Amino acid sequence: MADPVIPPVYRISDLAACERPRERLEKLGPQMLSTAELLAILLRVGVRGENAVQVGQRLLQKYKGLTGLHRVPFDELLHEHGIGEAKAAQIKAAIELGNRLRIESLGEFPVINSPADAAALVTEMSALEQEHLRVFLLDTRNRVLDIVEVYKGSINSSQVHVGELFKTAIRRNASAVIVVHNHPSGDPTPSPDDVAVTRALIQAGKLLGIEVLDHLVIGYNRWVSLKERGLGFSG
Fold first, then answer.
1. Shortest CA distance to 173 belongs to which of 210, 148, 205, 141?
2. Which residues make Cβ contacts (< 8 Å) with residue 189, sequence separation at least 6?
3. pLDDT score for 6
4. Structural fold of domain 115-225
5. How far apart are CA 98 and CA 91, in angstroms?
6. Residue 157 near residue 146 (C-beta atoms within 8 A)
7. Could you tell me the pTM of the whole model?
8. Long-range contacts (CB closer than 8 Å, 24 or more residues apart) made by 160-163
9. Number of other residues whose CB lies within 10 A of the CB of residue 15
10. Alpha-carbon distance 175 to 126, whole Å?
């Protein structure tokens, strides 16, 4: 006699109570759930043929994890099967809350001791679709007073206004700055324009008495320090 055919599980409610994401979170804590299970709690329900966990698994596989989900444009995510506007917004909001929690956990005035310290504060820039230029405002102990976005668009020496970049630094009485921008292509290799901008900023900083400590380029899970490579800082 043939074994009975067991239908596939398509609904969370079809799972045993101890296997349902929400119940597992309540009993074990969120850290014990897989990323797909956490996404399933946000999604609440799946679609015909897929429960919420399977939808989460599909998204994570397609976009290669949470970083990919962060990078994908909102308009593209909402057209994924089983997502829509509300669920896309929930996913984007949850990832952004995670980013903000990470920054808060580093303390109100984190100290920058290395390029890696600065890069760790702006990892979300790897997901931006356009180039953004931000400036770390530092006090005499290299503590971060603020991180200010001063430019959005193609970063080149003819478009970046040096005065605008230093205006906030002067207003906040910053002793030094670190400049950081992203490459949406994912490749953080500095361009000739990046080097030219760096040289211009260093010269302006000397005139204003504000040291430019570094210029970081953020790529996809990678970053480059122009100072470490001697680009724009030599001579």
1. 210
2. 183, 217, 219, 224
3. 40
4. Cytidine Deaminase; domain 2 (3.40.140)
5. 11
6. no
7. 0.61
8. 160/133, 160/197, 160/200, 162/200, 162/201, 162/204, 163/204
9. 15
10. 27
Boundaries of every domain in the chain = 12-104, 115-225
What integer is the mean pLDDT of 207-233? 94
Backbone φ and ψ of 217, nearest 5°: -115, 125
Cα of 6 vs its chain's centroid, Å? 43
Q: Is 11 exposed, middle or buried (0-12, 13-18, 19+ CB in 10 A)?
A: exposed
User: Measuring CA to CA, which residue among 22, 23, 27 is closest to residue 39?
Assistant: 22
Which among 198, 228, 194, 196 has a CA at the least distance from the CA of 212?
A: 198
Bridge partner residues of 144 (DSSP): 138
Question: What average pLDDT score do residues 47-52 get?
Answer: 86
168-175 mean pLDDT: 90
Q: What is the 3-state secondary structure (H, E, C) of the chain?
A: CCCCCCCCCCCHHHCCHHHCHHHHHHHHCHHHCCHHHHHHHHHCCCECCECHHHHHHHHHHHHCCHHHHHHCCHHHHCCCCCCHHHHHHHHHHHHHHHHHHHHHHCCCCCECCCHHHHHHCCHHHHHCCCCEEEEEEECCCCEEEEEEEEEECCCCCCCCCHHHHHHHHHHCCCCEEEEEEECCCCCCCCCHHHHHHHHHHHHHHHHHCCEEEEEEEECCCCEEECCCCCCCCCC
